[in-house]
Each structure stands twice: as C-alpha cells, then as structure tokens.
Design brief:
84 residues, mainly alpha, 2 domains, 4 helices
Length: 84
C-alpha cells in the first residue's frame, strides 16, 4: 500500500510565525506538528464547552418538570401577573 502525503504552503506574518515558534516543544518540531497540536487542543476545548455541568442538567430537568406540571406562564399571563 502506498500512502501519498500532500502538502501546501501557508503564508503567515512574521508576528504569527514567532507566536507559533513559542508553541514548539523542541527546535526541530515542524510547524505542521505545532498547528496539529493547536487544532487538537481547540477541538478538545470545544468538546469541553459542550459538556453541561451538574447544576445546568439539574436546572433543565426541573424546567422540564415545571412544563409537564403546567407551572409555566405564557407572555400574556406573565404581563397580567406583573401588571404590565
């Protein structure tokens, strides 16, 4: 089996190149490796943001229960209740 690797050139500013240099774990690490690590960290961060805390899950379950038991107000009812 033959694996073909395709590469491309990306132009970045000198400032960004220096920032990428700061992420290198060793001098011979390639920019492709650095960028791959940054992309993986960004994905992990996004996944972590999607996880709900126990408090949020509890609040969502309580809200569902309120809806199921009719303990909700529509906008008209709420305005009337608040005297608006």
């Amino acid at each position: 089996m033959i694996i073909v690797s395709v590469t491309t050139t990306v132009q970045v500013s000198t400032k960004l190149k220096k920032e990428l240099d700061g992420f290198k774990e060793h001098e011979r690490e390639t920019y492709a490796e650095v960028i791959k690590k940054l992309v993986e960290k960004a994905k992990e961060s996004e996944e972590a943001e999607l996880e709900l805390s126990e408090e949020t899950l509890k609040s969502a379950l309580e809200a569902k229960e309120d809806i199921r038991k009719g303990r909700i107000y529509n906008t008209k009812q709420l305005k009337k209740e608040l005297g608006l």
